[in-house]
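Hi all, posting the design record for the shared folder.

TITLE: backbone redesign
STEP: 1 of 1
STRUCTURE INPUT:
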């Protein structure tokens, strides 16, 4: 997916897929929310709002209060591409979020996912 395609992708559409993926693996919506809030700096109320309204990834990340500084520690591959090698900032943020959700679904401990 090109950076332009990712920027137009609706967070509102992808969020339920993140939750479904986690729940299929025995994790919870609350854990998905905790991961997203950790990455973006949104509180739970702000995240719930963004999950209800039509907002694309560009706006979702542009409006984020702060991207967690430890998100730079997220490494590995998503869709065959190394997260740390992605040059487009928005695409990298989206793929970091994808990687965090993958780690959650694979049963990794929250402390490790949140890079504590």
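Okay, here is what came back for every position:
SEQUENCE:
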């Amino acid at each position: 997916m090109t950076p332009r395609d990712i920027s137009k992708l609706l967070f509102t559409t992808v969020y339920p897929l993140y939750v479904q993926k986690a729940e299929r693996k025995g994790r919870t919506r609350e854990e998905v929310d905790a991961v997203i809030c950790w990455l973006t700096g949104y509180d739970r109320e702000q995240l719930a709002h963004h999950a209800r309204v039509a907002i694309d990834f560009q706006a979702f990340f542009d409006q984020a209060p702060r991207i967690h500084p430890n998100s730079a520690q997220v490494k590995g591959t998503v869709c065959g591409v190394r997260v740390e090698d992605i040059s487009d900032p928005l695409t990298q943020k989206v793929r970091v979020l994808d990687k965090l959700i993958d780690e959650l679904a694979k049963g990794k401990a929250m402390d490790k996912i949140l890079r504590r």
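COMMENT: The longest strand covers residues 77-78.
Let me know if anyone wants the other runs.
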